[in-house]
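Troubleshooting entry. The earlier prediction with FE2/S2 (inorganic) cluster gave an output that would not parse, so I re-checked the input for stray whitespace and re-submitted. Clean input:
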Amino acid sequence: MDKIIKKKDLDAFKEKGNRLLFADSVKIAVQAGTCGIASGAQEIFDFLSGQVSSGKFVLSRTGCIGLCKREPMVNVSVPGSVTVVYADMTKKLTEELLKSWIKGETPVKNSLMTLDDALYANPLKDLKLPSGHAKYRDIPFYKKQEKIALRNSGFINPHNLSEYIARGGFYTLFDVLNGQDSDKIIDEIETSGLRGRGGGGFPTGRKWRSCRNAKGDKKYVICNADEGDPGAYMDRTVLEGDPFSVIEGLAIGGYAIGANEGYVYVRAEYPLAVETLKQAIETARNHGLLGKNIFGTDFSFDIRINRGGGAFVCGESTALMASIEGNVGEPRTKHIHTVESGLWEKPTTLNNVETWANVPAVVNMGGSEFRKIGTKGSAGTKVFSVVGDIVNSGLVEVPMGMTLKELVFGVGGGIPGNRKLKAVQSGGPSGGCIPADKADIPIDFDELVKVGSMMGSGGLIIMDEDTCMVDVARYFLSFLVDESCGKCTPCREGTYQLKQILDRITRGEGKPGDLELIEEIAQVTKDCSLCALGKSAPNPILSTLTYFRDEYKAHIEKKKCPAGVCKALITYTIIPEACTACGKCLKSCPASAIEGGKKVAHRIIPEKCTKCGICFDVCAFDAVKKV
Amino acid sequence: MTKTGTDKKLDTILKKYEPRPDSLIAVLQEVQEKLHYLSEDALKRVAERVKVPLVQAYSVATFYNAFSLKPKGKYIIQVCLGTACHLQNGNQLIEELGSLLDTEMGVPTKDGLFSFEAVRCLGCCSLAPAMMINGKTYGNLTADKLKKIIKEYKAK
Ligand SMILES: Cc1cc2nc3c(=O)[nH]c(=O)nc-3n(C[C@H](O)[C@H](O)[C@H](O)COP(=O)(O)O)c2cc1C
Ligand code: SF4
Ligand code: FES
């Protein structure tokens, strides 16, 4: 295998990569990340594989370009023209459109947009814009996005090193290793104002500096790909769509702090991400971009992958390191920081996937350029997964400082069915629910904390008016009860007791004084827990109590769930006047709890009803009422 | 004494890893994958191989959700109960699976074909509710879709 040592070797790969990215023939790239495959991308890929022997097109695959709601998506480019992205594809549609594609035509049917943005430009020549298609920036979802961490995802083939190099990849590492002082790189990262994207937002440069200055014969860098926050999947998308960016980031970090070994800790639920990264590491190794004497310099560096075991707490830095060492993933107190004594008691730098993916871009553009993006306290962009009750659910990368409102209604396209926004949940189980009337706050690490939530890893769950906030709090508490490692009492018992109270309240057994009791337990859990899991565990409940106290009171005092979610507090009835006796609900009810006959209005038998809500969903005449 | 198929599989796995304590989790993961659970015997042999006390192997095996000391089904269905899926009624899928497979969470079907469990987020939240069967993800699930998928696996 040809090793890459000199700049001209990189140039040769770049040229090859550009030929692949902007092919001389018709090229079809299926977006085949986990989300794409789950929507049917594999079937499309398999069909195209069967046709490729015709020689009329070349077939490739790529990661996810973000608009997950419209998957499967297929990128099609004909020679000399800008790539067209097709959305909501099926095998049948692919079969039909393929006939035009191979003739060099790009029909508008199912076309989402063209990739005419500067981000995707051909560096060698101008491409023709095929007519009739929406432009990239015409799509509200993409209009205000600014991609740094996601710069390659959905565009390059994640398995192909030359395509990554064609996008400028590994040139930064080359420059760094050939002549840059490691202090200078850390300066650059410090100047950039980059803060960790994994949750806490700790300044990355400062972390690196401490680790570099720490005494130790051996040091480590680790990439945290545990991505435990439910509702967040940007790390998966980066690993599946652009694994080389993380590898390059880790190598730059390793050089800067003086580490020769790196680890990536990936969660168990991400088989495709593990596979993609594994292949990328092997490819990099085969070409000398990992291993001994990279680019012929003194610097040697290699990366190992560790798979997690399905424990949320292992995303915490000390627990993660314990897990890599082969132990139970219990956190320890951090009176000695991991930058001084981390993995195997050696100085260790841990950063999140998105942070690492940012690193080559930051070093390449320079710290002060990066700092120009975003807000004063939060530089750069942030990737969010916007999911839940939202029209354009998917992954977006926007400059910090955009308001939540703009993100939800502009980029996200608003709430489906013209319903009202109730709250945005951010920060996972450590975060909180931001009510709709606070949605004009700018997205920024510190602003989110001010309203009782936090940035977290970037999962944003959009909730409409049919969401019960007590149920949401109870959901997060049950998550935390399951995931508390049990090492310290305040967290183990505190979360458990809080959940018990919430269980009671949602069952209609709430008592006066419950809310005060919740606040008291929450305070103790917050103050006395050992790690951040316990310290932040009360956030979901406290933030909902702050903003939605009346909803708690309705559950406790009136025994009502205003949103109609808590099963014990609702009843389903059929309004006889509205019932057309169509029989649909009667047939659908799994509990046989509906009686009635031809031309006889139907009735729900309360004793039998399990409150599954199926009748409510199937009735075409709105005759089923939930009270 | 002749070795059973399981023993041989275990031998092959054990040989692949360096006999160091930090191999523990990786070895257990592979044993779990290939043999569907960690038997007492397997735990003892893994502990011996990577040079850790049995109690450490046991504590690791019981700490992480990915390990089980009892057999799982050939097809492991992981139903997502992450936030997005919770809000899209992922719980309903769990109930549905219980009656469809005539078993409860964590207990394999009598033919050993299926077992199901809950996980927190598969990273496919835009397709909520979602589930994964042996590494393959399914999204936008409904009761009907679920039935169809199970039928497909039964026919395999
Ligand atoms: C309970 C808990 C879970 C965490 N889970 C993750 C995670 O899944 N991914 C992650 O990057 N950071 C996670 N963190 C934050 C990490 O401890 C750590 O701060 C982070 O990985 C540092 O990288 P960064 O500075 O680049 O953000 C978690 C923290 C806690 C307390
Ligand atoms: S706070 Fe919770 S998760 Fe953290 S060490 Fe204590 S029990 Fe474990
Ligand atoms: S919440 Fe179910 S896949 Fe993320």
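This one parsed fine. Chain A is about 40% helix and 15% strand.
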